[in-house]
UniProtKB/TrEMBL annotation, chain A:
One GO process term, biological-process aspect: tetrahydrofolate metabolic process
UniProt xrefs under InterPro entries: SoxD, SoxD_sf
Family annotation (Pfam families): SoxD
Protein name according to UniProt: Sarcosine oxidase subunit delta
Protein origin, superkingdom: Bacteria
UniProt-recorded Gene Ontology molecular function terms: sarcosine oxidase activity
UniProtKB/TrEMBL annotation, chain B:
Lineage of source species: Bacteria, Bacillati, Actinomycetota, Actinomycetes, Geodermatophilales
Pfam families assigned to the protein according to its UniProt record, in alphabetical order: SoxG (PF04268)
Protein name: Sarcosine oxidase subunit gamma
Origin species: Geodermatophilus obscurus
């Protein structure tokens, strides 16, 4: 089974985690002024990339904390995990980590 | 009104536990009072108010008075006490952490403890838990919230040799986990030959 490295608890089994969808989706500054269509886009529309995707995960069977992860949707490899208050890693940082973690 | 008898959730398993060999001993821990503490920042002020240090390193526990303080999250701890009643512990801890912006809730009824002792404890736990339990990384003072045979547990390491572990499990899962542990220990239990 794949291990996911929780930023708090360390590597744990994938079944301990639950998925929280796309990360870094900002809440609208003035939601009352949005049209129905714009609101629907905020609530329902998410990216669906082939490749690296920034996602939210929750370590539900462990420390129950949310964190972000960069996961490759083709290989399912977790390239980076980071805490919610950390900025999204730049693509250039990931490129190097991808080579170093390759089997 | 009829008096309700308090029985331990694992009372029916006592006989089975007693027949286990020393290498995979399982004993039911006595009831302890437990309080769940939420607190944003921890410092000398907290230790002074509580009379015990809250561990700040993830996956650790520390002795706290007569009980233990277990790290459950960056702002969450489990405090236990063997000498105080649950209400007393909750009142004392609440009085200490509320002025610091925290909260304390009595969770004594949530979990019960099983103490696993013996040279084969790690092999038994490894059958249903992927956490590295080697004494090199899981010595005395280490803890882990994880799943054991699909049941959510808190593991506390009591020795540096990896042969003494307390498993805290939810009361309603205790019977299931007891059955699971007995099955996992079967391999290390000598069977009588006829």
């Amino acid at each position: 089974m794949q291990l996911i490295a929780c930023p708090w608890c360390g590597p744990r089994e994938e079944v301990e985690f639950s998925y929280g969808g796309q990360a870094h989706v900002p809440y609208p500054d003035s939601p009352a002024e949005l049209s129905d269509e714009q609101w629907a886009h905020y609530v329902f529309f998410r990216d669906n990339p082939k490749g690296r995707f920034a996602e939210r995960w929750n370590h539900s069977a462990g420390c129950r904390r949310w964190f972000n992860a960069i996961r490759d949707t083709t290989t399912y490899r977790f390239e980076r995990v980071y805490r919610l208050d950390d900025p999204k890693p730049l693509a250039t940082e990931l490129a190097s980590s991808r080579r170093s973690t390759a089997p | 009104m009829a008096e309700l008898l308090r029985t331990h959730p694992l009372q029916a398993w006592h006989a089975a536990f007693e027949q286990l060999p020393e290498t995979v001993g399982i004993a039911v821990e006595p009831y302890v009072a437990m309080v769940d503490v939420r607190l944003g920042t921890v410092g000398a002020q907290t230790s002074a108010a509580l009379g015990a240090d809250l561990p700040t390193a993830p996956n650790t526990w520390a002795p706290a008075g007569s009980g233990r303080a277990v790290w459950l999250g960056p702002d969450e701890w489990l405090l236990t006490s063997t000498t105080e009643a649950p209400e007393e512990l909750e009142a004392r801890v609440r009085a200490a952490v509320v002025p610091l912006g925290g909260s304390a809730t009595d969770v004594s009824a949530q979990r019960i403890g099983l103490r696993l002792t013996g040279a084969r404890v790690r092999d038994v736990l490894a059958k249903g838990c992927s956490v590295d339990l080697h004494p090199r990384v899981f010595g005395r003072g280490s803890s882990a919230q994880t799943t054991l045979g699909q049941a959510g547990v808190v593991l506390l390491a009591l020795s540096d040799a990896g042969d003494d572990v307390v498993v805290l499990v939810r009361s309603s899962f205790a019977g299931y986990l007891a059955d699971w542990l007995l099955d996992a220990a079967l391999e290390f239990t000598p069977t009588p030959t006829s």
